[in-house]
Amino acid sequence: MEITGKIIEFLEVQKGEGKNGEWQKQEFIIETDNAKYxxxxxxxxxxxxxxxxxxxxxxxxxxxxxxxxxxxREFNSKWYTNIxxxxxxxxxxxxxxxxxxxxxxxxxx
Length: 109
Prior knowledge:
The chain is mainly β. The protein has one domain (2-92): CATH 2.40.50.140. Helices cover 9% and strands 54% of the residues. It has 1 helix and 6 strands. Strands 1, 2, 3, 4, 5 and 6 form a 6-stranded antiparallel beta sheet that branches. Strand 5 and strand 6 (78-90) form a beta hairpin. Residues 95-105 have low confidence and may be disordered.
């Protein structure tokens, strides 16, 4: 599943230790790009590398497309939903790559 929108906030990094060692998680909020009814969605990334990459490559105001994994779990007769991003891509002109046969003006002749 994919969702697009603008990053509007980063929540604090959460850290802990479990039976498999140290873990990190960070959540961020995007606002969908639906002009009529924009929605805010809280999305998380798990793992030290993903948390570091989120801080390194994304910032508030970036338009992104997130590939997601959504899972719900039941605990004490209540349901909890977790939305995790496994890929985050910046959107817009900055990330467009030129076509292979596109002409450029920086040739020396």
